[in-house]
Design goal:
It contains 6 helices and no strands. It is mainly alpha-helical and about 90 residues long. The protein has a domain of about 60 residues: lambda repressor-like DNA-binding domains (434 Repressor (Amino-terminal Domain), Orthogonal Bundle), CATH 1.10.260.40.
């Protein structure tokens, strides 16, 4: 990786606030899909993660902007991995 490639990578600060990006939307949809496929209610996921059920609902609906750590906590509870592919522009 060249120095110019490194400058286009997101910083840790960028990853802590996923916001309403396409990545955040994809993660929310993935979490919702996994939860439903596994027959897990929001209440049960709340128990599994220690996160508030209302917050989980807001996350799934895109009304709350969690950090990457919270997404990871949810995915851990669902026994899923967080895999992100970062691309520079439209190669």
């Amino acid at each position: 990786m060249t120095m110019s490639d490194q400058s286009t990578l997101p910083t840790t600060a960028n990853l802590h606030s996923v916001n309403n990006s396409t990545m955040a939307k994809d993660l929310r949809l993935h979490i919702t899909s996994l939860r439903k496929q596994r027959g897990i209610t929001l209440s049960r996921l709340s128990e599994m993660t220690g996160l508030n059920r209302s917050n989980l609902s807001l996350i799934e609906r895109g009304l709350r902007e969690p950090g990457i750590e919270m997404f990871q906590k949810i995915l851990d509870a669902l026994d899923a991995e967080l895999t992100i592919t970062l691309r520079k522009g439209t190669e």
